[in-house]
Amino acid sequence: MTLLIGGTGKTGRRVADRLTEQGHDVRVASRHSDTRFDWDDESTWPAALDGQRAAYITFYPDLGLPGAADKVGALADLAVKSGVEHLVLLSGRGEPLAQAAEQRVKDSGAGWTIVTCSWFAQNFSEDFLAGAVASGDIRLPAGDVSEPFVDAEDIADVVAAALADPARHDKKHYELTGPRALTFAEVATELSRATGRHIRYTAIDHEEYEDVLREAGLPVELGDMFRGILDGRNARPADGVRQALGRPARDFADYATRAAAEGQLT
Ligand SMILES: NC(=O)c1ccc[n+]([C@@H]2O[C@H](COP(=O)([O-])OP(=O)(O)OC[C@H]3O[C@@H](n4cnc5c(N)ncnc54)[C@H](OP(=O)(O)O)[C@@H]3O)[C@@H](O)[C@H]2O)c1
């Protein structure tokens, strides 16, 4: 049995689909799943971990926020006590607090695979930027920084491979990105091409972005994190998809075409 924490999220549900198709038993856990798991309620953790051989850990809202590393570390330690042999952690590039969480998983005593990812392409269709795309104006404090957006389909391919064959991916730390970095203005161009609508990017400052986060009901601390990671540190593409799977990563243009065809960019 494989536990998928956050198994209904952007990456978790894709991992669940892949493992189920391959005939593996999965236990999807989150606040609203049949197996209830809440990062803010440790009493829900033991039953979720019981009887599991491996676990995929996605933290919510973001591994790069204060307090995340302690929670993930406590979960990893409990997982080992519960007999879980392999942990796969979803992490974010260039985030010091996320690196602390990665270390806690490496130190837990379980086998581990870490997937440290760039921004997900699916943020524009399935997450906090979907409303901006629908409005035709993506407002972010990203200046002209470029980002090698990774496709959640590639993340799920790597995570599912690691969970299905832990020995092969044990103690591997994969940096997952797309094959090329795009500025947010270039993203807007790709999304416009794919949808046939005019979608623009507007660079705003960090103070204005705090208001955007508040209006969207998102943690204002995300603004501090973006202030750190949207400085060009993550612009270089990495080859984690090829290392893990032996094939190139999917391009953002392919994501945009697919998401538009599936009606996810409206
Ligand atoms: N988006 C990016 O660009 C990006 C880049 C790098 C890394 N990451 C990392 O990705 C992680 C998020 O993974 P994701 O994007 O696959 O998920 P997601 O789409 O954000 O979905 C969140 C999942 O977590 C569950 N959840 C929400 N609150 C929870 C809580 N208090 N306790 C337990 N489960 C909870 C949700 O289900 P319920 O509502 O049923 O609880 C859902 O299954 C974050 O840690 C972030 O650091 C994101």
Automatic annotation (TrEMBL):
Recorded superkingdom: Bacteria
Domain (NmrA-like): residue spans on this chain: 102-221
Protein name, entry field: NmrA family NAD(P)-binding protein
UniProt source species: Paractinoplanes aksuensis
InterPro entries: Ergot_Alk_Oxidoreductase, NAD(P)-bd_dom_sf, NmrA-like
